[in-house]
Amino acid sequence: MEFMLQEATIRQLQQAMELGEQTAVSLTTAYMQRIAEIDQDGPLLRSVIELNPDAIYIAMQMDQERAAGQVRSELHGIPVLIKDNINTGDHMHTTAGSLALADSFAPEDAFLVKKLRAAGAVILGKTNLTEMANFMAIDMKNGYSSRGGQTLNPYGPGQLDVGGSSSGSGAAVAANLCVVAVGTETNGSIMSPSANNSLVGIKPTLGLISRTGIIPITYTQDTAGPMARTVTDAAILLGILAGQDEQDIATLASPADTIDYTTSLDPEGLRGARIGINRYYMKDLTEEERTIMEASIEAMRHAGAVIVEGTNLAESAEEPTVLLYEFKSALNRYLSTLGPGAPVRTLKEMIDYNHLHHRETLKYGQDILLTAEYETSGRMTESKYIQHRLQYLKNAREDGIDRLLREHQLDAIFSPRFTDTPAVAGYPCIIVPAGYRRDGLPFGINFMGTAYSEPELIRIAYAFEQVVPARRSPVL
User: Fold this and answer.
1) Active-site residue among 104, 167, 189, 198?
2) Strands 122-127 and 79-83, how do they pair?
3) Is 329 a catalytic residue?
4) Is 114 in the active site?
5) What per-residue confidence (pLDDT) applies to 258?
6) Which of 47, 98, 145, 165 is catalytic?
7) What is the pLDDT of residues 115-130, one digit of tens each?
8) What are phi and psi of 7, to 5 degrees?
9) To which H or E segment does residue 226 belong?
10) Other Cβ atoms closer than 10 A to 358
11) What sections of 205-250 are H helices per DSSP?
12) How far is residue 95's CA from residue 343's CA, in Å, rounded to a whole number?
């Protein structure tokens, strides 16, 4: 029997609540039941790592407010899942999938969680992820964590790559375990699972969304972002998450504290838009994927876009060097905020815990953690780090995305799946479903732009979604 909320959007659910056909409580319990049936049983997707014991009570409060005529935002009463590297100062743990942090409770909500609560969202629970946001072991499988097990792709459980590291957020939204979810990205961690789960994912400009209260990898690339089934829902969630935070200086450069991104939802958004085609990654695509990409380009052309060739954008370089040098400092700083009762208080203590419990924690090893601890100072004064950071930034921004946009007068750059360049630059990108391979794996295409160009990218992505309505729900 088809799930009664299958593919339901935020605005459809808001209308149902306004008409009295649904309540925040009925939505919350329906998604909880679905999590029980297909996530923790049935196909056993393992996308949800922990449920919020307060979710129903939050939903009851939102229903009471609605009955009194108070609706906080379009997220009022909407169940949302968040990645388990984002702090909640409630009864849920924050662990990044690590058993070393399995007993860790954050002292307070992350800034973005405070914004979700203020908007009236129902925090339904936390999602599994590739452990430590895929910065623990080089060979770790996407979607695996020692605390949460292996998350599966609902389009081919056990057969198809779920993508990472926001694997649980991707699988949960795709399988209709929630309306929308929050993921985080350092390099592809929103884009990859969004592509592999036929979702819309937005990796925003670094600083658009506060990093306060998120278990980090790096200072220069980490950001949270929305994952949804439609561009509209992603735009709604982005508008809620964005905002200036006094504790995160990167957010103070944002051009505005609040932006309504839904004003960019223009079905004619491709008409006259100059779209540069990045064919650098064509060599890495299968014949099926190339066919989907070319069909997407033709669809944009027919929708009135100006297709500009000769705008290839190569990879930025070996950016993991920068991440390694920043990780030790960033993680140690985060762990210090957990207080003296924290189960581990440094990267070194986490490594030692994993060694002591290696049967449970080191299925794939911890070579990245070891390199960060023993081969970097944590002070970020090494010449190699400084030179690499400055060169990567120049390659990705001035000599990369900004150069192509300027020289070809582009509104956006189009690319298959995702590239590392927007991540290194700290620039936004948005991925949209474009089709499926014969084995069932979804294929997404990516639009990227310069800093704070989210409104333009959303306008283009929304128009693309209208002419290429590719997403279909997985059969479970």
Assistant:
1) 189
2) parallel
3) no
4) no
5) 87
6) 165
7) 999 999 999 999 999 9
8) 65, 15
9) strand 223-228
10) 12
11) 231-241
12) 11
